Amino acid sequence: KNKEEIIETEKAMQKLVDSADLTQLTAKYERLNDELSLSETKMERAHGKNKLKYIREQMDLLKRVNAEQKKIAKENKSEAGKSKMQLSEFGVKFNENGDITNLESVLKRVKKSGSLEDMEKLNELVEEYNSYMKDMRDANQSIEDNKNKIEDLKDSVIQLNKELDDMKIQAWATEFDNDIKQIEFRKQELDR
């Protein structure tokens, strides 16, 4: 029995280490997300080149957020894999998407032949597994959403550069018109 307690303690300690990795990754992701929100807020008031600066900043932040999301997805996948192996020991089966397919029959079997402790362990593993899978899918969805945001921001850069170019052309045209008017005015003065 003492050996079982040591094994359980080691498992619990490893679970805390694994959990700390995810917590650290999530905290870094949240900090980057806060920076992104601040940049978006600043951009709302910006115009011209300042707006371009914030757009580029957001594109960089989105790329960094995606890198963190990839790490989070990978870590969740790894943790889900560990839970999946433990669930397989109970006879739990999974489809190609990773969804549990026979939970009800496994629960009935464990209820008949297992202990309350086995039921609680199975239930805990199912909840852990589903949580890791959801977090992994959410991270992957966020990555795709951010890729779309980056493309939208690239389009904004193109549009804003075009607007800035149009404004420069308009300013040059106005300056040219004013120069011509001045020349005509001076010419009229000289003709008098």
The major β-sheet equals: none
Helix residue percentage: over 70%
Backbone CA Rg? 31 Å
Which residues form runs of ≥5 with pLDDT under 50? Answer: none
Number of separate helices: 4
Task: Let me know the average pLDDT.
Answer: 87
The portion of residues forming beta strands comes to: under 5%
* Class by SSE composition: mainly alpha
Number of strands: 0
End-to-end distance: 117 Å
Morphology:
rod-shaped
Element pattern in H and E:
HHHH
Please explain how this structure is put together.
- The protein has 192 residues and is mainly alpha-helical.
- It is rod-shaped.
- The chain is 90% helix and 0% strand.
- The longest helix is centred in the last third of the chain and has 76 residues.
- The chain has four helices and no strands.
Give me a quick take on this structure.
The protein has helices at 2-44, 48-89, 103-113, 116-191. With 192 residues, it is mostly helical. The chain is rod-shaped, with a radius of gyration of 31 Å.
Topology record:
Layout lengths: L1 H43 L3 H42 L13 H11 L2 H76 L1
Helix pairs in contact: 1-2, 2-4
Labels describing this entry:
90% helix; 192 residues; rod-shaped; 0% strand; mainly alpha
